[in-house]
Amino acid sequence: MSATEQMRAMLDQLMGTAREGDESKHRYHFTDHRVCKSFLLDCCPHDILASTRMDLGECNRYHDLALRADYEKAAKHKDYGYDVDVSID
Ligand SMILES: [Zn+2]
């Protein structure tokens, strides 16, 4: 990852998808079924087990740090129940 990409990821993490001028990148809302809910909770098994013997390979759902930031903000006001919906598929 280049320095620019790293900076971009950091900003995404801090500010969510609301960051100006970068809307095209964010195709989904975090509630979209294509978005990895486990990733929003920072516990996607595909990430956790990556480079271990139990490596599951790439997650086939959408991972985006900005969506996680959005979710964390929204979850303060509303319980989405994602913490009970952590499954491997
Ligand atoms: Zn995932």
What do you see in this structure?
This protein is mostly helical. It has one domain. 36% of the residues lie in helices and 0% in strands. It is built from four helices and no strands. The protein is globular, with a radius of gyration of 14 Å. The termini are far apart. Zinc ion binds next to helix 2.
List the helices and strands and how they pair.
Layout: H1 3-15, H2 37-40, H3 45-48, H4 65-75
Zinc ion (ZN) binds at residues 36, 38-39, 44, 46, 59, 61, 63.
Write a short abstract of this structure.
One of its GO terms (cellular component) is U1 snRNP. This protein is an all-alpha fold and 89 residues long.
Report the span from N to C terminus: 28 Å
Number of beta-strand segments? 0
Share of helix among residues? Answer: 25-40%
Bound molecules: zinc ion
How many structural domains does the protein architecture include? 1
Radius of gyration: 14 Å
Low-confidence stretches: none
Quaternary structure classification: single chain
Largest sheet: none
Task: Specify the structural class.
Answer: mainly alpha
Residue fraction in strands: under 5%
Count of DSSP H/I helices: 4
- Label the overall shape: globular
Instruction: Report the average pLDDT across residues.
Output: 84
